[in-house]
Amino acid sequence: MAVIDLTPDLDHFVRSQIEAGRFRDPSEVIAAGLRLLEEDLATRAEHRDQLLSSIVAAFDDPQPGFSVAVAFDRLEERHARRVSNGGEP
């Protein structure tokens, strides 16, 4: 097993998890953390791929839903309604 140097805060966290009975030893705490990191990185990659796919599809759409000018007009109208109704700008 590799020797791992932890900051005092992380060392305290590991010890507190063991003392609370959540883990038997430091290696279990580190393994759980690494599993979460692995899952998070995979999820981020999957999300990035989905986002990229959506962006490419939007650019490839020969007939987008509406123009940028229409989108800005709608935003300005919505903003004006919120302000006139006493909402925040």
Summarize the structure.
By secondary structure, the protein is mostly helical.
Topology at a glance:
Layout: H1 8-19, H2 26-60, H3 68-84
Q: Could you describe the 3D structure shown?
A:
Helices cover 72% and strands 0% of the residues. It has 89 residues and is mainly α. The chain has one domain (8-84).
Structural class: mainly alpha
Compressed to H and E, one letter per element, the order equals: HHH
Q: What is the number of E strands?
A: 0
The number of helices is: 3
Report strand %: under 5%
Please state the CA-atom Rg, rounded to the nearest Å: 25 Å
Estimate the mean pLDDT confidence.
Answer: 90
Principal-axis shape: elongated
Straight-line N-to-C gap:
58 Å
Helix content: over 70%
Which sheet architecture does the biggest sheet show?
A: none
Residue runs with pLDDT of under 50 for 5 or more positions: none
Count the domains: 1
Characteristics of this structure?
elongated; 89 residues
